[in-house]
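Feature request, filed as a ticket because there's no other form

It would be nice if the structure record came with a short human-readable summary line next to the tokens. Right now we just get the raw output. Example of a typical job, pasted below so the devs can see what we mean:
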Amino acid sequence: MLLEVENLKTEFKVKRGTVKAVNNVSFGVEKGEILAIVGESGSGKSVSSLSVMGLIRDPGKVTGGKIMFHGENLVEKTKKEMNKIRGDKISMIFQEPMTSLNPVYKIGDQIMESILTHTDLSKADARKTAIKMLDLVGIPSPEQRMEDYPHQMSGGMRQRVMIAMALSCNPEVLIADEPTTALDVTIQAQILELIDKLRNKIGMAVLLITHDLGVVAETADRVVVMYCGRIVEQADVKDIFTDPLHPYTKGLLESIPRMEEDRDRLFMIKGVVPDPTELPKGCSFADRCENCMEKCKEHMPALVDVGGRKVRCFLHSDEEEVDV
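Raw output as currently delivered:
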């Protein structure tokens, strides 16, 4: 396993209490694999990715677990040590390229900065590499575009620049946090195709953070479904779409509009996500679940192995979570 997260816990201390944004989460990514983490806003998927990158800031803190990369625990790394790994061995594409790119610096300078920070290349060679990366991600006239500022590019082009920057040092792991948000459908398809193409060419692992199940079906090899900071299901992408086990996963899939179905209204999971500072005693999904039993309201089900996949539900196991 190239990157392995074990029992990760990330908490935020707020006035109303403690938010367990990531609670006892474990998953791994193999070399050359695309692992998708899906869930509603607030499920903990983005916080999981930021924890891996060492980018959690006050009042947040990683309070437990391990993030193993090449046999080393990233949680124990100093800020200086993480700066060497971040952008080099592990890179990240953020949701909104306009806020991630510096508006007062040229595109070329921003890509070159990453290359010069993590390699021994000269400025001239770094420039050649930056031009090569812009060409690799499909930006026309890359030498001319090196002189552009972020506002001179479209959203799709800026996202390609972010990908070029993230891949400029040939990372082993690429974390893509909602890489197609706010892009039109055509550009979305191009960006996803580009990530998959580069994954195959470079052999990097991809951790894809998204709420879009269409994106998952098109690109992912395996899927982790999160709800209220916990993993509720984990399986191959085919199994998730053909035979979901957890009621929450079934609800997400049922919510996808289908052209062949004649509905007056789209399906919606009943209720709302519970307050993160006041999570229920038992299963966090109990109040919204059509299959809720009394046991679900009192005890948290354990994440158990069911036929080579994992699910957290009393419909599939009577085992309870030990460490809540």
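Something like this underneath would help us a lot:
The radius of gyration is 21 Å.
The longest helix spans residues 185-202.
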